[in-house]
Write a structure and sequence with these properties.
- By secondary structure, the protein is mainly α.
- The chain has a domain of about 25 residues.
- The chain is built from two helices and no strands.
- The longest helix has 12 residues.
- It is extended, with a radius of gyration of 13 Å.
- The N and C termini lie far apart (about 30 Å).
């Protein structure tokens, strides 16, 4: 399992988003917390 996660992180770091997305379930659903400090798109 560790190797799978490491491969996903490495692919993300290299900008290989197709590999990252291929590792995710096709029915993935993303929930953002209300009031998230990053909600305005500011990464800091």
């Amino acid at each position: 399992m560790k190797t799978i996660i490491e491969n996903i992180y490495n692919a993300f770091a290299e900008g290989n988003i197709s590999v990252v997305l291929a590792a995710m379930d096709e029915n993935i659903f993303w929930n953002e917390a209300e009031g998230n400090s990053l909600a305005d798109g500011n990464p800091y």
